[in-house]
């Protein structure tokens, strides 16, 4: 399949998904799909123009016995070839996650809580300045790690396009590792492969704490929230984003590391240079 055909097929699939009323039960996914459609629209318009040129070329070739039409066929053929190459180049360079929101995993590798909090505050301030929203996906995070979701609104590209280069950067005094994941869904997962561990507490009015683990890979995430359904949904989003990153990221971008002795695995971006916050 040529790149222009792939563009056309992907755009049609996105529009079909967006037309499904069930998609709109999840406002977050519907918003991301709308951004994906807008992101791909210019390439889809180029693909439509190429298709029109190819039809014009067929017509001109049928009349190529006339020198004027033969010259026209040559001109259209060159224009179509140039446009086909431009679409192929742009499609190959395109990152399909650019319209996506992100989940940011922040690890203080030496337990530096002030350093961790400084990085969290920097991301929240940056999000506020850009008109985005940032919030914890795990309430009352421990001293050594935090999980943020960063969401944009309807317009423009998603935070992924701006923050993906932070992957693996060391912040603060160099001991806080940042891992940025697209807030995406992986290929369909068998529900039987998901394990949910619920942690009980004797404390009055304790928040729900649980862990979601994808057993075939060992990838997991904790959830903590006063509302059990929200705790599970937040943890599931972190697991989904990790699985999606494993499927699509270049080899070596992420490493699966143990969250704790005997615990689940969590993705961590390979160390990379980056601007300090």
From TrEMBL:
Residues covered by the Peptide chain release factor domain: 8-168
Gene3D superfamilies listed in its UniProt record: 6.10.140.1950
Signal sequence, start to end: none
Pfam families named in the record: PCRF
UniProt record, GO biological process: translational termination
Protein name: Peptide chain release factor 1
Naturally occurring in which organism (per UniProt): Actinomadura verrucosospora
